[in-house]
Design brief:
This protein is of the alpha/beta class. It has 24 helices and 34 strands. About 35% of the residues lie in helices and about 25% in strands.
Length: about 700
Amino acid sequence: MLCGVINDSILLFLDILIIMNKIPERKEFKVLLISLFGFDIGAYAISAFMKEQGYSTYNIDFCHLKIPLEFMLNDYLTPEPMFHEHFPKKDLQLLLKLLKDINPDLIGLSVSSVCFRTAKWVTRSIKEIRDTPIVWGGIHAIISPEECIQHVDIVCKGEGEMAFYDTAERIRNRKPVSGINNMMIRIGREIEDNPMNELIGDLDSLPLANRLDGEKIFFIDQGKIVKNPACNAGYVLYGYPIMTTRGCRYKCSFCCNSIISEKYKGLGSYLRRRSVNHVISELKLAIQQKAVSFIRFWDDVFTYDEDWIDDFCRCYARDIGKSFICYAHPKHTKLSVLEKLSNIGLTMVYVGIQSGSLATNKELFKRDQSNKDIVEFTEKMQKLQITPNYDIIFDNFFEKAEDERSTVELLISLPRPYKVLLFSLCFFPKTPLTNRAIHEGYIRENDLEQYKSKAINNFFLCIQKSKDKHHLFWNCLKAMAVNKHFSKSFILFCMYTHFFKKYPIILFYLSRAWLFLFKQIGKKRQTDWLTPVINDGSFLDDYIIWKGSKGLHKSGDSSFMLFPCGRNRFCLRVNCKEGRKMCFEGFQLELISLKENVLSRKNIWRLIHSMNIDCVKDIIFEFKHPVIYCYVDGACIQAAPYKIYDKHLLRGKPYFLKVGILKKGNIIFTRLNCFIAASAILSVNEERQNSENSRRNTVAKRAY
């Protein structure tokens, strides 16, 4: 007791000396937030909040999960098993060296169940060389704070902004770290479990995500430190990740939301959404300061609120104009919503199928959907030229042969093209599915994800790691079903062949050999500039699925952006800095079709139309092959054909569009805006015929 009084007196005396300028003020207080094995939106949200409160914040992304290119092409048979180190020693040494240079006063570690073992290893290594306070947060810390507190002194078991700030304030002002809501704190041998804060209802009150302070953001992976790394959305560079919501309207039995929503019960609405203006402000800031090719919305369901979508579409088309992808659910996505989003650049929608078995989805996964919903939703997306990307869960111990068969039949019935991500079932702690699996004896406690870290190398399907003959057989069939190089009749033949059921390893190697053989037969020479487009996973089947601009090209006092604005209509946005002026003589448009990976010769049009631009101007191009119209300054002008080699572009085949600006006799191409479109160009006659057919169908329906 006496020691505590003396310590408080000394601290008070030091504060008085600082006020009287007798000793220098304390040094700048630095906060470091570390994300493990993947980009973490929560860590950057806390970083932004702390920065707004006057703290010096740093972010480190430690290691990154990568997937084979073949997965992007629906090929799960030929890739070899992935290998990511759980404990990369070279990267750890770089992390410790960087910590020494930064010298933080407080460290936050974002911990998921996947990287729980790595988090323990990193924390222990840091503690061996420095006594900086470390706070664990993230999904696993929220779900299992009592397990996390065994390995660290402070665990954030709820939303982190205010809790992390309160902790930093206590340390900064040399006060006891105790009594902080949302925190579980180790004090000596005792563990203090503090109450939960209410959820943040007004997300607009939070600052914009802090991903743009390049001097204080680092990426460590494969023995390298990268300062100010490029944007990264999942597994693709130059995509900007963003969330407009917190929470989810669903409680799927395999997902952490089923637990977290219960923990927050009575503390406010679990599902909350930022305003459109707040979201657009963040995107504008990101595009101004980073190379951004597309936007990825990570919301569990992006499309559920049509009124919000209406406001979003108006602002997004005007201020952003980038292609984007999002998650949707058939039950909460109207056709009108898809149409609106398609018109402003929606190129791909992630849809969780999980299983083709109605019983599995409704009774086991607690998902209200049917195969009919999925097929109808797919047809809607295909009419709007939106690529569906399906999520399927494999290696499910609860499914019987009839459930597996339903999934295979659904996959071969879905209209192509589509992309698919095949996930091997991982058991995350405390979820209803995990509890049932333990109760029924399918798994034991030590099989949970925080002890196995299965998802680091086997989150996506790796057929070679199938648990038994039953799973190997059905995994092969599902992998064949999503690959366009296996016919429906052949898959059904294999499914009902007893020999393959008895010896599935033979089926695996036969199907794998066929794909390797096909790759050699179908290999054709590709133009150098096309190869990176195919290699980055944008190429799928006979389609280019990338409908948006490849980036924003800045040139001196101007910038150019190219993006879709309707069917066969594209907008070139020219933006001049204030007080500057650009003079154009016209435009040159180059159209290149792609047939079986072979480029045709360029079709070129020129449009001579002088204009002076001193602010922002949108030039709209409309394609009705072989005619191109340009809408500018309220006038509709037809572009003149300059060199037309391919007068009959095949409907349904992809094409490339390059827009060049004619300036003083030279052509200045928007280099990063080599536009790649998935749709076919309708000719004037085709469009008239379609309109006439539509009119006739309407008359017939009315008559009926």
